[in-house]
Write a structure and sequence with these properties.
CATH topology of chain A: Pnp Oxidase, Chain A
CATH class of chain A: Mainly Beta
Oligomer: homodimer
Number of helices of chain A: 4
Shape of chain A: globular
CATH architecture of chain A: Roll
Helix content of chain A: 10-25%
Number of domains of chain A: 1
Strand content of chain A: 35-45%
Structural class of chain A: mainly beta
Order of helices and strands of chain A: EEEEEHEHHEEEHEEEEE
């Protein structure tokens, strides 16, 4: 079940570097694409950085709305993640084409992708120079959600939930799943 | 063995979102710290983005030299990764304290950390506004190296090399290892 996550913990959805789905909404339509180049940028208020290439429909919708979401998809969605990262929404409705379902977000118009395990609702911070030069978008996270069945003691735990593991794109449809949980002994825990 | 990697493939060292070690050199000394907030920013010429907090020794050395390296550490180095991310180099020589060995880089003065599986030599691109506002450094990759024993057909393959798996920090010393290699069927490969 999707449950709210305190904003100060929002960075934990991206700290391990998973590939994300970026959703956007403007001009009466929505889109979804994959982005491996996304990371946290600050703890509180939480910020993120994500690369959204020029000429994509997502870029156009984000430029128009100043909003997007970053969703953390799963191994069960591997085919869809790769597909929405390879095809443009200009020619196809990727939601329908790949069977992805949108759910309403709480603070932004861009929708949440159902079946993911984490969701960040984001508002773009105006940094036109880096947007133009590097396709880099900096945004504040204004709401966060997590799938509670894989969230234990304040972080993801995919043990026994193999199909819910987040994924990490390498190139050309090759991914790593998020692997084993290991803890440095220096922490004195576990 | 550490072997050169073509620059156009350099993004593949970070595309899966591993936690990195950042090395730096200036004023006759070097330092090493951990950074989970690092990602590729472009393919060719390759660029990266990394967050280097204000007030750290690494920030001071990177500001002075305009250079750093991003190294991809392994599960075998988990304790060291966590330690160099928790302690400041201002008070301790972290190399000696944690038994990390430095090797010379080829194009920058910042050293490479031995025992890692990937290395990027980076030159800072001057973006003072985002450096100041977000602690965000954008850099061009000027040389790249990979550990050839875990590099197969143009990407990491950690099968049978468990201790060489890259790692992904979550928070407070909790990490995920890089998991299983999986390929989207849409690619028509494997």
């Amino acid at each position: 079940m999707r449950v709210p996550l305190e904003l100060r913990r929002a960075y934990k959805l991206l700290n391990h570097g998973p590939t994300t789905l970026v959703t956007s909404a403007a001009h009466g339509r929505t889109n979804v694409m994959a982005a491996a180049w996304a990371m946290p940028l600050d703890f509180e208020p939480p910020k993120v950085a994500v690369v959204i290439a020029e000429s994509t429909l997502t870029r156009e919708l984000v430029d128009a709305s100043g909003e997007f979401t970053l969703c953390v998809p799963t191994r069960a969605q591997l085919e869809q993640v790769y597909a929405v990262g390879s095809v443009t929404g200009r020619e196809e409705d990727k939601w329908a084409l790949y069977g992805l379902k949108a759910a309403p977000a709480s603070r932004v118009k861009a929708p949440l992708v159902e079946g993911c395990v984490g969701w960040l609702e984001c508002r773009v911070l105006p940094e036109p120079d880096v947007q133009r030069k590097y396709d880099l978008f900096i945004a504040e996270v204004v709401a966060a959600w997590v799938e509670d069945s894989v969230w234990k003691n304040g972080s993801f735990d995919f043990e026994g939930a193999e199909e819910h593991r987040s994924v990490h794109h390498v190139a050309g449809g090759l991914f790593f799943t998020t692997g084993e949980r290991v803890r440095a002994r220096g922490t004195g825990k576990e």
